[in-house]
């Protein structure tokens, strides 16, 4: 046993670990652990005072048990005691226990702050570092409050040891990230920036992380760091491979520090000072030159370290996007990596080149590598590498190579991994539309897409092909012919049947002259697919049939026969039955003229101005792809207007595509495309006008979300609900509309209305960037118990959200019985290739289903008395977190949904309210009393209702509001 | 707005460091953002699932939720670092190696059991090299000197 043999550890601990490892079963392990826990507990409780060593050993054992996955509910005090020991090993275990077990548990933190304070002022560098590491690991707000003032002093003091400076810098960074309002750099700024000049490279390495973070928030205050960073970088880059001794890694001088310096520079635009800029360009050139030199070592560590710097330098070159020479050199260098034997390098080169493709200076240079990239798409073993190759092909696509790239992507689709098919389909569809020079190519491509990957062709793709065919009469005959041929395949995808039904219904007459595709042949071909299709497709086919009756009177009898059959006219699906009945009647009673008018060819689909505006605003975003390069030059004539780009067109199709059950043929409204938009449009206006003022007022008073949430919140958290979800939920307890969530990419607005036990919520997802979101998908789920308490229904949203555009989603909510949790809203989409995954709680709370109840004082008190059982009452006494303004209080209580009863409480300072919560299962009467105490800045809140869970929940919700 | 946009690009850190063996047993878990215990367990399992299916022909990088995992395998142990998608892959890949070389030196030919029996010392090594999710010290000489000094203290 290594630890035992070394003789420097705790023998008892090593024995215990050995015992655990020797346990043959989980049960044996648990038994052994319980025995140990009992032992430790009795030692801690015993009369005999434990010496430091024993205390350390037992605390360490507890820590080990915790790390095995068992709960530990004692020993915290002993750990805290260890902090005041004078021995390093005891202190270390105490701090470790706290760092690992304390999840910013405030109770304990108050106890340890004193010990930390002592260690920080001990002038013992080892103890100071332990204390700083503990703060950096826990990083709670209490700690920020206690130490944010002290740590900058330690960081810049002349007599602080280097290792302490390193820890202090990063400790401060942690506190700044956790509580930026408490860390005020002010007077320290200049001295912190000058740490970039520190003699000790370790201090620079640590300090630069702090400086980068602060610079990204306050670029102006820290801008002097640019010239310091450039000169530091220059010194490193020009040093020989052995100059930096301790900081040379496999013959590469200070690779990590170089990367951090290059990253810091990416917070700023290119230096304005000519001399600084010249020096920087020289550095970047040197880095590019070194990549060409023969390696100083064959070890992969050497090349990785060297290339880490190279890739960071290329990031900076791309960030500046102003040095054509460097951009092209970077591209050539990456081109060499595309065929490197290291998979890592091929992957990174593809990824990096993708951003180079969006620069006008390097776009052409990127294009020269097309064959290599296509080859990578076909041969790479790692799917993530193939994915990068597909991204790059998409990014380098323009008019000159579109046909080749689309063909390659299509053929790759036949074997592509399921995980990336949907994205590939969208990319092919977008490229095909963007760079179509003739429409027959476009139609062929989309039909191929449906044939190869029908399951992954989302609605907007096939809606789009139909819109384009309808808007362009020169392609209609070709489309009818092609789709007719495609339908000949014995097994064709349902999406093909949809497109086929639609196009033949509109333009079947254009190919009816050929006896091989006579009207009856067309009809029989379509109808042969009918029975295998889902309801929405069948509905579409029925509409195509009635259009056939108008186009080809000779098919009338056959089609009427079909409509009249029991399987149509008595279909159990209401939609199908209704169509069959109505179409049959229409075809029997309407005159030819009426029929021709009703069943007229679809009018061209309108474009929406807003999406054109969105396109005008379009600039090169971070993940922007090269296809935008051609914007505004000579493009997008597919849909008529020469200046109307594909993006705008696709966006328009998104905004105007009817839902699957809507009548595509427009029998019920002449322009189905516009049918969906007006209501959405007016709601958009609503939500903006509503969000505007509330957002601005939010900044000044209690609604701190918009003003205080760090902008990167979303990207910092993975799929589980954001930590602030509960807080967000609380914001909406007393209001129904506002901005639910916002980060740098996405804004989610919310507007909701409730009646009795039903609610409807409109969510507005706004793309704040200039780049489209693809694979946009939202789901609403009810975790656990909630499933049986709430009935939540949503329609899916369109998977493509254009830059600057907004999409709406409606959520219908039915409250079955009272509930506590909130439904979860998960939003996933890809932005510039990166998957975004955000989960939030939907602000559906039980009080939304309140019906206000007015009553007189006598009634109130009588009912109050009736609800006198202890479990019917919930009460909270709490400190006011906001001002106690009467009008604000009243507004909140009304917002809660109850009636505010005047002249009921004998004390005019108090508020009483009454309401009934409406659920499907029952109605729960609720009485409320809020007693403010202005002097003590406290409230007492009492809730009484016929159901204990309701009293408690409403009480909890409301207590957060004041 | 420009400033914050650029900020997002540069404002990053390590989210967690994990050392796991092939069977999925955790030998070190160091978290740099708040997760509750269930989330931690889920992350540990997910990382194990995505990393162990990959072979030598694959890259050392895996997309993972909103982040990416940079990992390298040493004998039966996987060393994984979770960072932002825009972070520098190779710098962290070598950051792992640098860390492993320090462990190797400190424990004289480190093996999995060293990490088990000396788990409390491994945390010290991590804190010397990575702090608050950032790289703190990269010089092996400096780190080992500091560790030996601490080792000599009572």
From TrEMBL, chain A:
Entries under InterPro entries matching the protein: Adaptor_Complx_Large_Subunit, AP2_complex_asu, ARM-like, ARM-type_fold, Clathrin/coatomer_adapt-like_N, Clathrin_a-adaptin_app_sub_C, Clathrin_a/b/g-adaptin_app_Ig, Clathrin_app_Ig-like_sf
Domain spans labelled Clathrin adaptor alpha/beta/gamma-adaptin appendage Ig-like subdomain: 730-843
Gene Ontology terms: cellular component: AP-2 adaptor complex
Residues at which a 1,2-diacyl-sn-glycero-3-phospho-(1D-myo-inositol-3,4,5-trisphosphate) binds: 11-12, 43, 53, 57-61
Protein location: Cell membrane; Membrane, Coated pit
Main localization category: membrane
Region: Disordered, residue numbers: 623-670, 695-724
GO molecular function, one term: clathrin adaptor activity
Comp. bias intervals (Low complexity): 647-662
Family: Belongs to the adaptor complexes large subunit family.
Function: Component of the adaptor protein complex 2 (AP-2). Adaptor protein complexes function in protein transport via transport vesicles in different membrane traffic pathways. Adaptor protein complexes are vesicle coat components and appear to be involved in cargo selection and vesicle formation. AP-2 is involved in clathrin-dependent endocytosis in which cargo proteins are incorporated into vesicles surrounded by clathrin (clathrin-coated vesicles, CCVs) which are destined for fusion with the early endosome.
Protein name (Swiss-Prot/TrEMBL): AP-2 complex subunit alpha
Source species taxonomy: Eukaryota, Metazoa, Chordata, Craniata, Vertebrata
Automatic annotation (TrEMBL), chain B:
Membrane topology value: Peripheral membrane protein
Protein name: AP complex subunit sigma
Coiled-coil regions listed in the entry: none
Gene3D superfamilies: 3.30.450.60
Subunit structure, as described in the record: Adaptor protein complex 2 (AP-2) is a heterotetramer composed of two large adaptins (alpha-type subunit AP2A1 or AP2A2 and beta-type subunit AP2B1), a medium adaptin (mu-type subunit AP2M1) and a small adaptin (sigma-type subunit AP2S1). Interacts with CCDC32; the interaction is direct and mediates association of CCDC32 with adaptor protein complex 2 (AP-2).
Gene Ontology terms: biological process: clathrin-dependent endocytosis; intracellular protein transport
Family of this protein: Belongs to the adaptor complexes small subunit family.
UniProt source species: Oncorhynchus mykiss
Family matches, as Pfam families: Clat_adaptor_s
Domain AP complex mu/sigma subunit: 14-153
Cellular component terms (Gene Ontology): AP-2 adaptor complex
């Amino acid at each position: 046993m290594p630890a035992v043999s070394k003789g420097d550890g705790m023998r008892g601990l090593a024995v215990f670990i050995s015992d655990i490892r020797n346990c043959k079963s989980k049960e044996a392990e648990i038994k052994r652990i319980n025995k140990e826990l009992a032992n430790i507990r009795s030692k801690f409780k015993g009369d005999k005072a434990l010496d430091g060593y024993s205390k350390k050993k037992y605390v360490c054992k507890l820590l080990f048990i915790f790390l095995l996955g068992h709960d530990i509910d004692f020993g915290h005090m002993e750990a805290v005691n260890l902090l005041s020991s004078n021995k390093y090993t005891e202190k270390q275990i105490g701090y470790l226990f706290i760092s690992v077990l304390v999840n910013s548990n405030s109770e304990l933190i108050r106890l340890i702050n004193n010990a930390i304070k002592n260690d920080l002022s001990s002038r013992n560098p080892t103890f100071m570092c332990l204390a700083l590491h503990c703060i950096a690991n826990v990083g709670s707000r209490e700690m920020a409050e206690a130490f944010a003032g002290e740590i900058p002093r330690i960081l810049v003091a002349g007599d602080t040891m280097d290792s302490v400076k390193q820890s202090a810098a990063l400790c401060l960074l942690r506190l700044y990230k956790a509580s930026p309002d408490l860390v005020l750099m002010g007077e320290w700024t200049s001295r912190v920036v000058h740490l970039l000049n520190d003699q000790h490279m370790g201090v620079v390495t640590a300090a630069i992380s702090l400086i980068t973070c602060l610079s990204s928030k306050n670029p102006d205050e820290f801008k002097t760091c640019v010239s310091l960073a450039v000169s530091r970088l220059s010194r490193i880059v020009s040093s020989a491979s052995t100059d930096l001794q301790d900081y040379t890694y496999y013959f590469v001088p200070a690779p990590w520090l170089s990367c951090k310096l290059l990253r810091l520079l990416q917070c700023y635009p290119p230096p304005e000072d000519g001399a600084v800029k010249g020096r920087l360009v020289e550095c970047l050139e040197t880095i590019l030159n070194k990549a060409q030199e023969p390696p100083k070592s064959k070890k992969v560590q050497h090349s990785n370290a060297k290339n880490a710097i190279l890739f960071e330098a290329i990031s900076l070159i791309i960030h500046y996007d102003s040095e054509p020479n460097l951009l092209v050199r970077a591209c050539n260098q990456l081109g060499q990596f595309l065929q490197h034997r290291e998979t890592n390098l091929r992957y990174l080169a593809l990824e990096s080149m993708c951003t180079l493709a969006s620069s006008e200076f390097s776009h052409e240079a990127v294009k020269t590598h097309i064959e290599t990239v296509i080859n990578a798409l076909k041969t790479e073993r790692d799917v993530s590498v193939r994915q990068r190759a597909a991204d790059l092909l998409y990014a380098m696509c323009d008019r000159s190579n579109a046909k080749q790239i689309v063909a390659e992507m299509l053929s790759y689709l036949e074997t592509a991994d399921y995980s990336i098919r949907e994205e590939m389909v969208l990319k092919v569809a977008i490229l095909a539309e963007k760079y179509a020079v003739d429409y027959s190519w476009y139609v062929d491509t989309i039909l191929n897409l449906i044939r190869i990957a029908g399951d992954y062709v989302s609605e907007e793709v096939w809606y789009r092909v139909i819109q384009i065919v309808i808007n362009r009469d020169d392609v209609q005959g070709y489309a009818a012919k092609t789709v007719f041929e495609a339908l000949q395949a014995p097994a064709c995808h349902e999406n093909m049947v949809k497109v086929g039904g639609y196009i033949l219904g509109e333009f079947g007459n254009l190919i009816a002259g050929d006896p091989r595709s006579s009207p009856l042949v067309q009809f029989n071909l379509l109808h042969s697919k009918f029975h295998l299709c889902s309801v929405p497709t069948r509905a579409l086919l029925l509409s195509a049939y009635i259009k056939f009756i108008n186009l080809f009177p000779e098919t009338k009898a056959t089609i009427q026969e079909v409509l009249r059959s029991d399987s149509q006219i008595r279909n159990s699906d209401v939609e199908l039955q209704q169509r069959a009945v109505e179409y049959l009647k229409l075809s029997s009673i309407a005159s030819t003229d009426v029929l021709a008018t009703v069943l007229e060819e679809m009018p061209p689909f309108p474009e929406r101005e807003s999406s054109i505006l969105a396109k005008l605003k379009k600039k090169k975003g971070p993940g922007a792809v090269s296809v935008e390069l051609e914007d505004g030059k000579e493009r997008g004539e597919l849909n008529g207007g020469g200046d109307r780009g594909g993006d705008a067109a696709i966006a328009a199709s998104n905004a105007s595509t009817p839902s699957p059950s809507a009548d595509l043929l427009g029998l019920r409204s002449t322009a189905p495309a516009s049918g969906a938009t007006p209501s959405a449009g007016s709601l958009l206006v609503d939500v903006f006008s509503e969000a505007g003022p509330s957002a601005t007022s939010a900044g000044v008073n209690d609604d701190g979300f918009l003003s205080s949430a760090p902008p990167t919140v979303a990207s910092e958290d993975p799929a589980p609900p954001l930590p602030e979800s509960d807080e967000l939920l609380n914001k909406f307890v007393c209001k129904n509309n506002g901005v639910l969530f916002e980060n740098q990419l996405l804004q989610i607005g919310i507007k909701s209305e409730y009646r009795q036990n039903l609610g409807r919520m409109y969510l507005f997802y706004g793309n704040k960037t200039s780049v489209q979101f693809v694979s946009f998908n939202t789901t609403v789920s009810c975790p656990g118990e909630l499933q049986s308490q709430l009935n939540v229904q949503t329609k899916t949203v369109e998977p493509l959200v254009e830059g600057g555009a907004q999409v709406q989603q409606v959520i219908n909510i039915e409250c079955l019985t009272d509930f506590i949790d909130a439904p979860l809203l998960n939003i996933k989409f890809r932005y510039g290739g990166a998957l975004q995954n955000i989960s939030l709680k939907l602000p559906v709370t039980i009080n939304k289903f309140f019906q206000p109840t007015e009553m007189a004082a006598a009634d109130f008190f009588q009912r109050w008395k009736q609800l006198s059982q202890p479990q019917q009452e919930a009460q909270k006494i709490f400190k006011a977190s906001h001002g106690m303004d009467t009008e604000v209080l009243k507004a909140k209580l009304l917002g809660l949904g109850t009636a505010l009863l005047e002249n009921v409480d004998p004390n005019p300072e108090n508020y009483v309210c009454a309401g009934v919560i409406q659920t499907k299962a029952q109605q729960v009467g609720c009485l409320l009393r809020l007693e403010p105490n202005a002097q003590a800045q406290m409230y007492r809140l009492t809730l009484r209702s016929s159901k204990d869970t309701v009293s408690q929940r409403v009480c909890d919700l409301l207590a957060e509001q004041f | 707005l420009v400033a914050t946009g650029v900020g997002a690009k540069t404002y990053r850190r390590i989210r967690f460091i994990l050392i796991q063996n092939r069977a999925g047993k955790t030998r070190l878990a160091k978290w740099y953002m708040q997760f509750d215990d269930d989330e931690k367990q889920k992350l540990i399992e997910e990382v194990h699932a995505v990393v162990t299916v990959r072979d030598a022909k694959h890259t050392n990088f895996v997309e993972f939720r909103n982040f990416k995992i940079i990992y390298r395998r040493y004998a039966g142990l996987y060393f994984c670092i979770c960072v932002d998608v825009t972070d520098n892959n190779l710098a962290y890949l070598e950051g792992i190696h640098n860390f492993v070389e320090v462990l190797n030196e400190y424990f004289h030919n480190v093996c999995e059991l060293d990490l088990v029996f000396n788990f409390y010392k491994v945390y010290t090594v991590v804190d010397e090299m990575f702090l608050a999710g950032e790289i703190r010290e990269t010089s092996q000489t400096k780190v080992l000197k500091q560790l030996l000094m601490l080792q000599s203290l009572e």
